[in-house]
Amino acid sequence: MSLTMAMPIHKSVLLNEAIETLQARPRKRYVDCTLGSGGHAEAILEKILPGGQLLGIDADPDAIEIAKNRLHNYVESIIIINDNFANLEAICRENSFLPVHGILFDLGISSTQLELSERGFSFQDDGPLDMRFSPTQELTAADILNILPEDKLSQIIKTYGEERYSKKIARHIIKSRPIKSTFQLASIVEKAIGSRRGKIHPATRTFMALRIAVNSELENLATALKQAMACLDHQGRLVVISYHSLEDRIVKQFMQRESKGCLCPPETPICQCGHTPGLKIISKKIITPSPSERKSNPRSRSAKLRVAERL
Ligand SMILES: C[S@@+](CC[C@H](N)C(=O)[O-])C[C@H]1O[C@@H](n2cnc3c(N)ncnc32)[C@H](O)[C@@H]1O
C-alpha cells in the first residue's frame, strides 16, 4: 500500500504559533528536525520563499516518504534527510547548511505512526510490539518487555509513563512473558490495574513509557538541543513543541541554563566556569493550544511550545 493513500493525515499542532515564533523569512535557512507529515515544513516553506532553504529531518523512512510527496512542489528549496536529529550538527555540516536562522522540534509521534497497527505504537488495533521510529534501530518494545528484569521495567514505566502502578504492571508483565502483541500487552496492563480509570485507557501510560525508552527520546532531545546552539546564527530562533512533562523539563532547563552567564555555585567568589549566555528566552510564558485547537485536535492537548533566540 502506498503510504500516502488512506493514511490518517497528521494535523500539525500549534502550527501558526510555531511559524510565527520561528520568524521564518525569505532568503534564510531553517531546519525542521521532526518532518513527520510535512505540515510545519510546508508552512515554513510558504514563508521563506523566495530564496529560503529548509532542511527536514525524520528518523522514520515512512514519514520521509509522506513528506516528500506532500512537499514535491518545493524540491528546489528543501533537503530531506532520513536520520536521527541527535546528529543535527553533522547533518547540517554535511549539507553545507550552516549557520541556520531557525530550528523547529515538534517532538514525539505523529497520528500516522500511531494509527498504523504494524508499527505497534497503539492498542487500538493489534500489532507487533515494535515502536521504533527507525527500522535501523535494533531495540524494540518487545525486547524491553521480554528481556529486562522486573525492577528495570517498573522504573521505565514509572519514570517515562508517570504511572503510579508501575510495580504491579511490571510484575504482571514478567508473569505473562513472552509478550508479542499490542493487544496482549494492553490486556496484561488492564488485568494488573483494572479497567478504565477516567478518560484514558489503563495501558496508555505504559505504551508511552515504552515508546520513549525504545527511541531514547529524552537522551536524543538533550543531545540535539546542545547541537542546535552550534548551528544557530546570531538571532536565530529555537522553537520546541513538547508533549510530555519530562521533555518539557529538559527544554525549559536547557533554555534557562543557556540564558544565564556564570553557572558557578553562589559561594564561588570569582567565576571559574566562564559560561556566557547563549540564548535569550522569548516565551516567558509557555505557549499552549487554543481551546478551539484542543477541541478540534485532542492530540494537541498536552502540547507546550517554548522559544529562545540565539545571542
Ligand atoms: C509530531 S511528529 C511531527 C509532525 C510534523 N511537525 C507535521 O507537521 O507533520 C514527530 C516526528 O518526529 C520524528 N522523530 C521523533 N524523534 C526523532 C528523532 N530523534 N530524530 C528524528 N526524527 C524524530 C517522528 O518519527 C515523527 O515523524
Question: Count of helices?
Answer: 13
- Name the strands of the widest sheet in spatial order: 3-2-1-4-5-7-6
Q: Beta-strand level of the residues, as a percent range? A: 5-15%
Helix content: 40-55%
- Evaluate the radius of gyration: 20 Å
**Assembly state here?**
single chain
Q: What hetero molecules are in the model?
A: S-adenosylmethionine
H/E series: HEHEHEHEHHHHHHHEHEHE
Largest sheet: 7 strands, mixed
Write down how many β-strands occur, each being a DSSP E stretch of 2 or more residues: 7
Extract low-pLDDT stretches: none
Global structural class: alpha/beta
> Distance N terminus to C terminus?
47 Å
Instruction: Give the rounded overall mean pLDDT.
Output: 95
Backbone shape: globular
What features would you describe in this structure?
The mean pLDDT is 95. The chain is of the alpha/beta class and 311 residues long. The chain contains 13 helices and 7 strands. Bound molecules: S-adenosylmethionine.
What is shown here, in short?
Helices cover 41% and strands 14% of the residues.
Comma- or semicolon-separated keywords:
single chain, 311 residues, alpha/beta, seven-stranded mixed β-sheet, 7 strands, 41% helix, globular, binds S-adenosylmethionine
